[in-house]
C-alpha cells in the first residue's frame, strides 16, 4: 500500500483502551479501480469505520449537458460508465425518445440490444478478472481479457471504437451493421458458453476463492432496498428485479432469457450472478442475430431537436444496476436539466455497511464486489 | 400500468398541490411541510409500497418563483410502479427536511443536491459536500454559475 498514510489515535491509548488506527486507502490504491479514497479506522485488523470520499473524477457532465444540443450529449454519456459505454448511450437515447414520444424501428432495437449485451458481457468479464486479481487469483484475468478482446473487436467492427462507441442516435443507430458482422458475432456466441465453463473451473468451486468471498460483504435484501442498491448486487440478495424483465425497453420483451438471482447476499453470489448474466446475455445476442428484422434501423430526425417542454425519467438495466436519466426540457435545443442516476454512486453507499466489523482484507473483497466505475460515481 | 394517486389525494387533501401525467410518468407536487408524512405513507401503505427511493435531485428555475424544486423518484417493486414527487422550495438558500430517515439511501443523494445546487437538508445526519472539495464556495449546477467556472479557487 504505497500511498497509505498511517496515523495513530493517541488520545485513546493512555487509558489502556483499544488503540485504533486510521488508514487512508486510496485515492491511488490498486483495489479501488480508479480514484476512490476511503478513510478506514482499524482496531488491529478489524474495520471499525469506513468513510468514503468521492469526487476526484468529477467533470460536471450534468452542467456541460445543459449547454449542448440533444445529439451532442451522446458522446458525453459513454464517458460515464466507460466499461459499458453502449448502456449509457442507450439509456440517454431512450430518455430523449421518451421525451419526444417516438419509437425506434425493430431493426434498430435489435442492433441496440446486440451492442448493449456485448458491452454487458465485456464489462462483466473485466470485472470478474479484476475482482479475482484483487483477491490474489492472477490467472482468470488473462482468460477473461482474451474473450473481452474479441468483444471489443466486434464492437469496433460495428461502431468504429472499442470503449466509447457513441454509436446509438436519438431515433435509432448511426449505421446498419456491416455485412460480415453477423457471421463473426455468431462465431463468438457459439464459442462463448464453453469459455464461461472454463472460467468457472478456475473459480466457482475453488476453495481459496470461496473462502475469500463466501459470506464476505454481506448485504441483506432489506438493506439493499433501504440503501437503494440495484443490479447484480440486489439480485445476489434474492431480489428478483431486472428492468429488462420488469419494465422492458428496446424490445427486450421479445427475448427469452431469465434474470440471474441468487440468495447468498455476499461477494460470492455477486460473482455467480454476473457469471449467469454473461450466459443469459450471450443467449439474448444469439436470439437477436437469429430474429434480426429487415427494414429501417432508424427514424429520421432533425439535426437540431427541440423536444416539447416537459420532463421524463427513463431507467435501464445497466451492467451495474438501474441507470436512469431524468431530463427536463424547456422546449429549446438544449436540455434545461439532465440528471444521471448512476448505479454505482448509489451502490457504493453500501460499502460501510458491508465492511464494518469485518477484517481489512474483506473490505477489499466487498469494494471489489460493488463493480466500481469511478467515472460514473463522480460524473 | 400507471400509478393511481387518488388514494394519496384523498388521504392528504391539503398536501397535494397538483398531479399530472406526461409520457407515462406520474408527477405529484407537494407542499413542503407535508413531505415527511406523505413519504412515510407512500412507503408503508400496502397499495403503494414505494420502498425503493431511486433518486433525489433539484432543478434550478433561475428566473421563476419558486426558484428551486426538489424532485424525488420512487419505485414500488411490489406493484411495479414509479412515481415522481416534486416540492417547490422558497428562497435563494432553500431548506427542506431530509428524507434519509425514511429511505437511508437519500443520504448521499441529498449530499449531492446540497453540493451542486445548494439546497440545505434539515436534520440530515452528515450534510457535507460529496463531489467537490470541502472548501468550494459555490454550487455549480445553479444556473447563475458560469459553465466555464469562476477560475481557480
Short description:
The complex is a heterodimer of chains A (379) and B (153). With 379 residues, chain A is an alpha+beta fold. Chain A contains 15 helices and nine strands.
Please name the defining characteristics of this protein.
heterodimer; A: 379 residues; alpha+beta; Cytochrome-c3 Hydrogenase, chain B; 2 domains; four-stranded antiparallel beta sheet; three-stranded antiparallel beta sheet; 9 strands; disordered N terminus; B: 153 residues; alpha/beta; Beta Polymerase, domain 2; five-stranded mixed beta sheet; globular
Can you tell me about this structure?
The complex is a heterodimer of chains A (379) and B (153). Chain A has helices at residues 61-65, 74-77, 85-100, 106-134, 139-159, 181-203, 207-213, 221-226, 232-235, 243-246, 267-290, 343-348, 351-355, 360-370, 374-378; strands at residues 6-8, 21-25, 37-43, 46-53, 168-169, 172-173, 310-318, 321-329, 337-341. Chain A has 379 residues and is of the alpha+beta class. Chain A folds into 2 domains: 6-53, no CATH class; 61-378, Cytochrome-c3 Hydrogenase, chain B. The longest helix of chain A is centred in the first third of the chain and has 29 residues, at 106-134. Mean pLDDT of chain A is 88; it is low at 1-15. With 153 residues, chain B is an alpha/beta fold. Chain B has a domain at 6-109: Beta Polymerase, domain 2 (2-Layer Sandwich), CATH 3.30.460. In chain B, 18% of the residues lie in helices and 29% in strands. In chain B, a hairpin with a 2-residue loop joins strand 1 (16-22) and strand 2 (25-30). Chain B is globular.
Amino acid at each position: 500500500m504505497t500511498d497509505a498514510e498511517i496515523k495513530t489515535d493517541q488520545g485513546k491509548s493512555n487509558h489502556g483502551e483499544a488503540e485504533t488506527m486510521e488508514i487512508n486507502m486510496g485515492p491511488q490504491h490498486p483495489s479501488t479501480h480508479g480514484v476512490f479514497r476511503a478513510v478506514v479506522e482499524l482496531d488491529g485488523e478489524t474495520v471499525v469505520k469506513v468513510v468514503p470520499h468521492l469526487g476526484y473524477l468529477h467533470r460536471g457532465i450534468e452542467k456541460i449537458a445543459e449547454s449542448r444540443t440533444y445529439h451532442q450529449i451522446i458522446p458525453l454519456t459513454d464517458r460515464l460508465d466507460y466499461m459499458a459505454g453502449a448502456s449509457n448511450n442507450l439509456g440517454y437515447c431512450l430518455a430523449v425518445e421518451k421525451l419526444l414520444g417516438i419509437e425506434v424501428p425493430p431493426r434498430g432495437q435489435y442492433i441496440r440490444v446486440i451492442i448493449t449485451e456485448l458491452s454487458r458481457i465485456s464489462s462483466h468479464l473485466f470485472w470478474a478478472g479484476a475482482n479475482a486479481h484483487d483477491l490474489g487469483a492472477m490467472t482468470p484475468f488473462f482468460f477473461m481479457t482474451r474473450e473481452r478482446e474479441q468483444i471489443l473487436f466486434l464492437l469496433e467492427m460495428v461502431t468504429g471504437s472499442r470503449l466509447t462507441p457513441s454509436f446509438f442516435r436519438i431515433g435509432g443507430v448511426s449505421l446498419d451493421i456491416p455485412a460480415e458482422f453477423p457471421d463473426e458475432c455468431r462465431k463468438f456466441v457459439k464459442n462463448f458458453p464453453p469459455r464461461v465453463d472454463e472460467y468457472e473451473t478456475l473459480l466457482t468451486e475453488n476453495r481459496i476463492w470461496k473462502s475469500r468471498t463466501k459470506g464476505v460483504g454481506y448485504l441483506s435484501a432489506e438493506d439493499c432496498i433501504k440503501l437503494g442498491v440495484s443490479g447484480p448486487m440486489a439480485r445476489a440478495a434474492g431480489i428478483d428485479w431486472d428492468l429488462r424483465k420488469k419494465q422492458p425497453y428496446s424490445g427486450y420483451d421479445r427475448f427469452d432469457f431469465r434474470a440471474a438471482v441468487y440468495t447468498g447476499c455476499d461477494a460470492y453470489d455477486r460473482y455467480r450472478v454476473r457469471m449467469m448474466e454473461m450466459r443469459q446475455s450471450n443467449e439474448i445476442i444469439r436470439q437477436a442475430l437469429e430474429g434480426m428484422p429487415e427494414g429501417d434501423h432508424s427514424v429520421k430526425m432533425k439535426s437540431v431537436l427541440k423536444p416539447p417542454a416537459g420532463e421524463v425519467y427513463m431507467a435501464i438495466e445497466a451492467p451495474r444496476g438501474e441507470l436512469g436519466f431524468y431530463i427536463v426540457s424547456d422546449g429549446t435545443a438544449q436540455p434545461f436539466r439532465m440528471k444521471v442516476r448512476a448505479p454505482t454512486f448509489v451502490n457504493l453507499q453500501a460499502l460501510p455497511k458491508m465492511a464494518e466489523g469485518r477484517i481489512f482484507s474483506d473490505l477489499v473483497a466487498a469494494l471489489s464486489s460493488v463493480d466500481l466505475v469511478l467515472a460514473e460515481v463522480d460524473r | 400500468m400507471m400509478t393511481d394517486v387518488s388514494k394519496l389525494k384523498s388521504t392528504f387533501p391539503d398536501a397535494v398541490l397538483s398531479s399530472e401525467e406526461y409520457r407515462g410518468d406520474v408527477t405529484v407536487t407537494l407542499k413542503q411541510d407535508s413531505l415527511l408524512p406523505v413519504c412515510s405513507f407512500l412507503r408503508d401503505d400496502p397499495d403503494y409500497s414505494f420502498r425503493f427511493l431511486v433518486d433525489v435531485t433539484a432543478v434550478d428555475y433561475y428566473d421563476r418563483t419558486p426558484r428551486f424544486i426538489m424532485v424525488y423518484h420512487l419505485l414500488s417493486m411490489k406493484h411495479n410502479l414509479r412515481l415522481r414527487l416534486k416540492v417547490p422550495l422558497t428562497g435563494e438558500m432553500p431548506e427542506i427536511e431530509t428524507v434519509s430517515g425514511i429511505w437511508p439511501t437519500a443520504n448521499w443523494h441529498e449530499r449531492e443536491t446540497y453540493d451542486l445546487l445548494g439546497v440545505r437538508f434539515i436534520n440530515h445526519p452528515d450534510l457535507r459536500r460529496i463531489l467537490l472539495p470541502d472548501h468550494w464556495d459555490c454550487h455549480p449546477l445553479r444556473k447563475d454559475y458560469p459553465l466555464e467556472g469562476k477560475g481557480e479557487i
